[in-house]
Every structure is written in C-alpha cells, then in structure tokens.
Amino acid sequence: MNEISRISTKGQVVIPLEIRKDLGLEVGTQVIVSRFNEYVVLKKASIPDLRKEFEELTKWGVKYAKRKGIKSEKDVVRMIHEHRGVKSD
C-alpha cells in the first residue's frame, strides 16, 4: 500500500490512518527511524516486557537445573568447583 504524505515545517510526517491501524500504531507509540540509501524507514519500536522475559528465563533455568540434577545452591557451588578443579567443602 502506497500513500503520499507531506513533511510539515516541523519535520513531521502523517502516517495514513489505515497503515496506523494495520500496524497498531497509537498515540505515543515509539518508532525507530532509519536511513537506507535514499529511503527513510520507520519501524515500530518493540520494548520487551521484562517481567515476561524474566519468567521465561526462570522456566528455562528450572528445566536446565532438572536436566543437570541441580537441586540446591550447594549443587551449583559443587559443580563450579568441579569445573575449576577445586575441592569443595
């Protein structure tokens, strides 16, 4: 879909309504502006949900620990010492 828009005296460009709706661009949505040769590219900035990322990382960690037989912090310390070739108490 191509549409023509104009640059205002403040350097602002109107993104046509249909395109904004299709991409979920709402008031306050951040966009990344890049230049590629003679093109100006706008990309919706996606800011990750840190709480969700942490939950996913935690789930991965729990599965990994189960596969490796890690049940406690002592197991982790023991494995570190084993890897380093150090005797653990």
| Rg (CA only) | 25 Å
CATH topology of the largest domain: Pemi-like Protein 1, Chain: D
Strand order of the largest sheet: 1-2
Biggest β-sheet description: 2 strands, antiparallel
How many strand units? 2
| The CATH top-level class label of the largest domain | Mainly Beta
Q: How much β-strand is present in the residues?
A: 5-15%
Q: How much helix is in the residues?
A: 40-55%
What's the pLDDT, averaged over the residues? 90
Number of domains: 2
N-to-C SSE string, H for helix and E for strand: HEEHH
Secondary-structure content class = alpha+beta
User: What does the overall shape look like?
Assistant: elongated
CA distance, first residue to last residue = 68 Å
- CATH architecture assignment name of the largest domain: Ribbon
The residue ranges in which pLDDT falls below 50 over 5 or more consecutive positions are none
Number of helical elements: 3
Give a verbal description of the structure.
It is a single chain. The protein is α+β, with helices and mostly antiparallel strands and 89 residues long. It has 2 domains: 1-47, Pemi-like Protein 1, Chain: D (Ribbon), CATH 2.10.260.10; 50-84, no CATH class. Helices cover 43% and strands 13% of the residues. The chain is built from 3 helices and 2 strands; from the N terminus they run αββαα. The protein has a two-stranded antiparallel sheet with strand order 1-2. A hairpin with a 2-residue loop joins strand 1 (31-36) and strand 2 (39-44). The longest helix is centred in the middle third of the chain and has 19 residues, at 50-68. The protein is elongated, with a radius of gyration of 25 Å.
